[in-house]
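G., before I forget:
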Amino acid sequence: MSGFLALEDGTVFCGQSVGAAGVALGEAVFTTAMTGYQEVVTDPSFAEQIVCFTAPMVGNYGVARWRSESVCTHARAVVMREARGPDWTDWLRDSGLVALSGIDTRSLVLHLRQAGAMRAAAVSGEASLDAVLDQVRAQPSMAGRSLAAEVSTREPYVFSDAGAAHIAVVDYGCKLSILNRLAWKGAAVTVYPHDADADELAGYDGVLLSNGPGDPEPLGDQVKRIEALLGRTSVLGICLGHQLLALATGHRTFKLPFGHRGANHPVVERATGRVLVTSQNHGFAVAPSDVREATYVSLYDGTVEGLDFPSLGARSVQFHPEAGPGPHDAWRILDDFVQEVGLAKAA
Amino acid sequence: MPRRRDLESICLIGSGPIVIGQACEFDYSGCQALKVLREDGFRTIVVNSNPATIMTDPGFADRTYIEPLDFEGVADVLRRERPDALLPTMGGQTALNLAVELAESGTLADLGVELIGAPIDVIRRAEDRERFRETVQLAGLRVPESTIVTSPSELPDSLTFPVILRPAFTLGGHGGGTARSPEELQRLLDRALRESPVSQVLVEESLLGWDEFELEVMRDRNDNAVIVCSIENLDPMGVHTGDSVTVAPQMTLSDEGYQELRDAALVVVRAVGVETGGANIQFARERGTGELRVIEMNPRVSRSSALASKATGYPIAKVAAKLAVGYTLDEIPNDLTGSTPASFEPTLDYVVVKFPRFAFEKFPGADPTLGTQMKSVGEAMGIGRTFAEAFMKAMRSRELDEGAPTPWPTLGSLPDGVHPWFRAEIGRVTDALGRIENVHDLVAADWLGLKRLGISDAQVAERCGVNPEVVRGQRRGWGVRPVYRRVDSCAGEVEAASNYFYSTWGEAEEAPPRGDKPRVVILGSGPNRIGQGIEFDYCCVHAAQSFRALGYEAVMVNCNPETVSTDYDTSDRLYFEPLGVEEVLAICERELPDGVVIQFGGQTPLKLARALEDAGFRILGTPFEAVDLAEDRERFGAFCEEIRVAVPPWAMAQGPEQATYAADAIGYPVLIRPSYVLGGRNMQVCYEAEAVAKAAASGERVLVDRFLEGAIEIDVDALCDGKETYVAAVMQHIEEAGVHSGDSSCVLPAPSLDRAATEAIEATVTRLAPALGVVGLVNVQLALAEGELYVLEANPRASRTVPFASKAIGVNLVAAACRLAAGTLLAELNLPRGGQTQEQFCVKAAVLPFARFPGADPVLGPEMRSTGEVMASAADLPTALAKAERAAGRPLPSEGTAFLSVRDADKPAAIEIARSLSRLGFRLVATAGTAHTLAAAGIGVEHVRKVTEEGEGATVVDLVRRGHCDLVVNTPFGGSGARSDGYLIREAALTARVPCITTIAGARAAVRAIAEAQGDLAVSLQERISAQPA
């Protein structure tokens, strides 16, 4: 069956439908990671997005339940140059994802790079382009969208109960890789909803503000809770968690033209001059400020990749130290956090 | 950290002649390194014995030494130049081994030369197998179970077969193998111990059938490390990676699988301690369990890193050179984007496949089974948006000779153990091909489907039994044409103005050519093979440089990832594409060039000339008509008669009967060959009717030529503008006619020619070239027999000797040829007269890969078999000859025992040779016949038994094997019997690394060199050229 991708500016890319039937609306973005397609699709940060893979062939090694970054898929649709099945495509269909193969992904990427990420629809089968475009343009733009509540856990739960340090993770759309890494490094991990109470969180040895989808700016309530938490326990922010921490400390965030999504992004650690190759997935970023220098900076575009507030016991990174998918260069950020929190507790 | 300020001059060691396992990739890396070092203001010195390299061009370094790459040769240069540092990581294993030798002997310390790129302890940890294993195990990773032995007695009692043997410090796994039984192990171990310069062999757990991966890592002194590329082998473990079909990026690993490899690679690099450069790490991985073994690492730029550079657009050698002088990865810009640093990991939105190119047809008797010892002579790479597309492109880029035995011969015959994912992908292609019935039934969607699977017009044509032109017409009729995509290292994420393109189908066009400069398309020479190697790439690179200098836009088309021509820096635009009619026409239609340049890429572009002309594209320089005339033996014979140039008596014949009749008329011996060949494929010298009948048995048309025995063979490179001719170099072959010119040593100026002979040769060439219609380069081969001059062949294109001749006479012949092709007249070039009167003797010697092909007779003959060449120069001929032999890795002995065994016809000549050797103090040993002749002539000689001869005591083969022989002179009888005594002697000499000379002329030259060679100081090319009379 044929299918197509329609962008809000009217650009259309034709291909074949290899997933579920229907029309999927979302923001069209691309990721340059060459492996980890299942992880990407199940990463809650991709909520409300249509993900285009630049990797030439996707689905080569099938799927495995334990590779998922959450209990379900979050991307709205998947766009590929060449999908390989049947495991992957069957799984996409069974998960209800519209998936297109045979798309001129490179042209799509070059277009998005130039015009910026935009609203789009992935359509399986026939549909009136005008009607689809009307739907696309009727969508809210990603800027200003608050999505964390939709993907966050409703109730707190214990992820791992044994450990020297007890870490609370605020789930704005948390990836399993974060929880796994914390637990693997010996932390007891409890996961809280996005609107967890600061007082409750403050009782933990450390709090991790997770990644998540959408624009950080409308999350005023969550930011307030973080403000109330700061200084009372150690805090580590990742991705959306980093942006929220930045907002809580008086920084501003802005929407990147087409975001950073991939597994090869170099950032420099300014304290050491060391370069980390990182996994990234963000459409928004923290605006540079005169008040506080970034701890990590993107070597691609100079954007802020990390912040540190020693007096508040808080720090954050824009990239994904938990990888999943991507290189493990930054694992030590999570490892160090667990260790420090554990030491602080012991002291 | 910026560049080190404490270094001013850096010496770079090249890799020497092209051999199996070390090809043009090290010219590519050396060139890149020299380029960036010079840009950074370093004074650069390069040592390399290979004249066909771009890196040894006078403009590439401040001082260029074309000297033997042995300890003395390099030490000599270091003593003269006193560089601050030595960079050994660009010249393959050769350079690394030399660096170890220079460091361990204390030479570097004495001269105050610092080893940069890879310090000595890093080289040792990576290259010494035992240390490497310890290092890796200490770092927590696993290596194959193994034991290191230095003699057969050290073998452990309990070994599970099969086991793999890997000798330490050898090229391309040379001397290694897989033993399936204790007997086989014993035999292979003997050889492996001999091959290893440190007599150390690793006997290890066989991982046959495991998947094999390679990672290319860069690390700087700040401990920043990136993986440039992952490469997956389609042939599983057990096949040398150089002989494997490989794909990048890896296709079958999940993210966690891949990250495990990535982590392991970084652990290895850090443990070994590579901190200012690149490294390549090989892994074996069990497909089911994911179990991992670290196989080996190269702490240097390698063949795989050249492939990775071409595959990703990340210039590994350039970056490695910058790291070696102190930069860190984040300080080095990514060339392709300009805006991002080299401290990132390239991400690919396409697939790259490499195919090895083999030449088993050249070595009858050799075992074509692939193993741990590399046997391929070249490689081709294909880029596509899918695996199938890239795979099919690379596969057809091999340009196989019809019927030549090769692994991966067809889509239907895949080796065992190939991952099911690849099988399925290849299966899609075979299925699609199988579904085609009639070319006229195909509609646009079908065409697009076929093309997106990488199927060529020619394959569709073959399937449908029609002409490829019909297929092309049909396809284009449906509007299905290729588009071109950029290689940008970042999958489009960052804006890149890269000039590096590949084709695909059914997508949007990217960055079509613009600009109003005139434009030329230069066709490269494809994968290296015997007869067509780096020399032609050298010419193509110069062509690009020359046309750019003339104000043209130079567009390069080639598919060989090892080369300088496929460095995107070389041309204004690079198309990494197969050199087929379909692909080249499509590129020309996109580029609309003012001319297409076909005279520099060897035979490959010539095959496309007709189609290009038919499609209305202009061939620049010599028209195709001249090529055709020169290659068609019948037309050429008639033509020579017309212009009164003598050729040896000849005839065309079909079948044994006609051939013997023709041979009788011409007179024996005769040379039999098919017309239209390069590299002398299937050429045979026949001494009697029976042999002629056998040679012509196939029934194809053959050319029967009088074979001029004892003639002096001359090679001439000349320039012609259509009217005037410039005879640039008259070179004399040391071996007589009958040994392929590519395998023969050759001398400039020609020592045996008097003034009259030289003038006669010049006059002949001057008559021939304009009559042929040459505009550019022409190579003429002549023979001088009994005072008569004959033209053997003329090739109106760049020849194999062009780089050697250019360097010997100090004239860039390719640049001159390009200007002629662009319309300049010869008179306007102001070329130096008297290119023939230089003060120096220059010798070119061939390097032969016999040691790689046990079973094939290591004897020189009309079929070319050398893979590479070296050059040496000196004030006198014997010194130059001795140096050339040293450079070729066969240093002549100055004393010891010489063994002689020659055929009857050579016996008179052997007397002189033996007498000279005896006078030089050599002990002489000979087999019965030769010993008898020598004794009769009053020369003291000991008789030694042939293998097939009854009797007591050691045979000649024992003598050679035990190292009791320092020089072997053995001329074969007529043909070369596969299991004859001669063969056994030659093979023994080869294995024992004893110089083995198989022609009388060669022996004569060697004796002269032994007797008269002088101690000689290294002189740089720059000094030699400036010393020449203008």
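Chain B has 32 helices and 38 strands. Chain B touches chain A through 46 residues (CB under 8 Å).

More on Monday.
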